[in-house]
Design goal:
binds coenzyme A, alpha/beta, 11 helices, about 25% strand, Peroxisomal Thiolase, Chain A, domain 1
Length: about 375
Amino acid sequence: MKIGIDNIGFYTSNLFLDMAKLAKKRNEDPNKYLIGIGQEKMAVIPKTQDIVTLGANAASQIVTDDLMDEIDLVIVGTESGMDNSKSAAAYIANLLGLKNSIRTFEIKQACYGATAGLQMAKDYIQIHPDKKALVIGADIAKYGLKTKGEPTQGGGAVAMLVSANPKLLAFDGDSTYYAEDVMDFWRPLGYSEAKVDGKFSTNVYLDFLSHVYADYQDTYGAKLTDFASFAFHLPYTKQGLKAIKFLIQNEPEEVQASYLNKFEASRKYNKIVGNLYTGSLYLSLLSLLENADFLKENDKIGLYSYGSGAQGEFFAMKLVEGFQSVLTGKTKNLLAKREEISVEEYEKIYQSTLNYRDNEVFDVTEDHARYVLAKIDDTKRIYIKQF
Ligand code: COA
């Protein structure tokens, strides 16, 4: 029995910042952000969106009425949790109108959370093939204004429906993983911005890739050309460029050129959204699927997941027959319809999201998303469905 991803939904806010304009304000050469870091636009998440609304808005792209009775597991991977106790999954299941005979919980391991959820959902469907699981990676990447990490911010959510006989991608059954206690990126309780040892974290990312990829090659006798293409965790897209260059380093020149060319499709969306932590790998996967013209049925895609702290995993998924029918172009439309804001507006929104006052009521008239955060009522977050 094949198990895999039946459908993928994505959501980010309708606001973005132009990276060249941010570079100028920060007295940097725009090419440092555009080429050196590999980011062209950055999603700016307003106060009316958090991981619950981002996750629910992403999930609403794929959760149709006929799935209401079949989904009985909702897992949210996030490192932007807004409650130390209640999970975002509990809110999201309710907002989507899912049934109550369901399991809902949240997972944390930096940017690895959605992969942990996906692997857990795969195992669950293996023994409950008549059920479906909803796995969401939702985050808002925050390093602080005028920090080195600032151009690698962003936010959004990816929602994946995991099922037997999937319409999009099937797990290949192969996976290798590696963990170590490393201080490359962390966010202590009470802090709204991440702490990061930037250069070190980019090296640990590559070091873990070398561990899991070598292990994968040894364990499964795999070679690079078994893969039609790759998708990587992309905290910023230059990191993925370093990853693909690492994988292809011993290949002939024409093979290297071909994989470098294919990599461009996998970073197209991430370049104009920025970092969404747990969801980044899966936005890269969606970007590859929606923008590559070379993919065909049974092609194998290699996925590298990395979460600081740190956990790495390399696994493969295969495109199933008719996969093109699932790719509706909704993401392309969503990204094309966004509105540019100035650096000043971005800074204002940024500052406003650092603190949420108790009994604060939010102006939702400018936020046209289906799900929005409307107010904080005696410390309780109140969400509404707008349409
Ligand atoms: N034109 C083209 N490239 C340029 C450039 C220009 N004018 N100016 C600089 N660059 C290149 C640099 O050579 C460098 O490339 P390299 O990484 O291949 O060496 C890159 O741009 C970044 O420049 P650098 O001076 O190293 O930037 P920085 O000190 O501001 O830090 C990060 C960059 C990525 C380390 C920082 O943004 C950060 O900490 N981000 C968060 C890290 C993160 O996401 N970690 C999680 C990993 S999972």
